[in-house]
## 1
Amino acid sequence: MTIITDHLARLAPASRGQGRLVAGSTATGAEISIPYIAARGAADGPTLWVTATVHGDEVNGTLAALDFVRNLDLAAMRGACIVIPAANPLAFDARAKTAPQDGLDIDQQFPGAAGGLTTQRVADRLWREIERAGDCLVSLHTLTAHFEAKPYGVYKLHPDGPVAEDVLLRHLSFYDPSVACLMPTVKAAGELPGNISGAIDYQFQALGKAAFMVELGAGSRIEWPYVEQGSAGLRRTAAEIGMFEDRPAPGGMLRKVLKRRHVTADTGGLFRAACTPGDILQPGSPLGVITDIFGDIVDTVTFAEPVLVIAARRDPVVATGDRIGFVATAWESRTLQSA
Ligand SMILES: [Zn+2]
């Protein structure tokens, strides 16, 4: 039995508990620990995991997860819900994406390494709890503070995983996303460099269970509408897997992104966005302009084909190669049927 499953077993039906998973200590002797909240329903049933801030500055997810779990009607709930409000505690405390000890992206490290670097040990400590229990996992993220984006979904399809794409799209529709992005699991142009298979949702899917990511706006600040969108979506996911009676209707039409890419600045200067997330830009229509430090326009950023804007940069200061937008270049509309 793991610490959390043991804790759940000791909880009275329809009650909630909390605790910490210890993954080590700092130089001054403070615990490196991962806080958790475990909520037990009135009857047995499925287990939902919600992890927030594997990237430590993506705080809308933390608030959405807390609002969700603290407002559950446990007397009407079957099964259990486990929330990890700060899945990367050292990064969270540092208000940064990664922990200052090693700079590793923890969402590229799962299932972790018991004898590894600090971040790998934290991943291992959390994963040993997760892999033993759970039917569905939602990994909450945001973009970086530099961007503006509406909430959207990201999912991967594990090559050996039996989880159907429609199951994931149905879940994602509950979060009213601007788009749902199928993320390639092999290296693809236009994506950030990294080890996709080390993502917590990908590893969970490798166990044959549904898992996906929800991006709730931008990092390092509260965006209340997106926090509420996230907590409402989690409630529907819980109902969808059978924790509540009111099985939700899917969100209807969903824009599924087949190809996406970051747009990077070809020249340094000040970027001014000329669009809003969700806009479709026709060829020649600008994402924005870059001026030099004297205010003269030195570049107008346009596309040769229509693009759907997922996110646009709001921090104007850019160097050559900085990300100024995140766009879909191929997408399709999917209508989701009620089950
Ligand atoms: Zn993230």
Note: The mean pLDDT is 95.
## 2
Amino acid sequence: MFGTLGRQLVAPFLEVFFPRSCVGCGDAVEDSAHEHLCRNCSRELFLVAPPNCRVCGYPFHGILAGPQACPHCAELDPVFDEGKTLFLAKGPGRALVHELKYQSGFYILRDIERMARDAQNYLDYLADAVLVPVPLHPDKLRERGYNQSERIADALSRATGGHSPCERLLQRIKYTLTQTRLNREDRHRNVKNAFALVEDAVVIPDQQYILVDDVFTTGSTLNACAEALRKAGAEHIKVATLGHG
Ligand SMILES: [Zn+2]
Ligand SMILES: [Zn+2]
């Protein structure tokens, strides 16, 4: 309605009259640490801090566990070295992911960027790496119009001050069914060999790569991506997700 410039000029005025509404509950956002979560939802957001599962990042809730996998990924047999997640994808965390993934809610990325910057363990984890978004199949990309994992990887890169760049090294060469309704075994079969390096991409063995996705569910997709990077010669591969499903 206003055009880009118009919107930039008008937005601050609109906010005076119409405060932003919370992505989690729809209430007005006032005096909150986040731009798009109200104070209550901000409190409910479960930001993950160590100790956490080394594979998927799930918090250990004070359980004295070894450095190995939690029940979520006990059967994963990960091709990557380590995983971290920023928050749990339930309640407000789930709402943030959904807003970005299904509603083109790119505006929440400002909150994501700030959360990543404030979570010292997550930020340290992202340091000195190349961030590689999990790619969408071209058909899926056309359908959705954007790849949410790319947007997240860009936001995380900004959180590192640009020191860890985002590089689109992978492509999806197999159109896969949505993983949502598949069981663990079928998910694994579904994404096997679905990814490959993009043409002319260069993988450096000594470089730390971090695969970036919206949520960690069973880890099959991230694992298949890690396999493609590994085949291309990458020796140091980690994964980072926004939420843990
Ligand atoms: Zn709320
Ligand atoms: Zn785990």
Note: The longest strand covers residues 208-216.
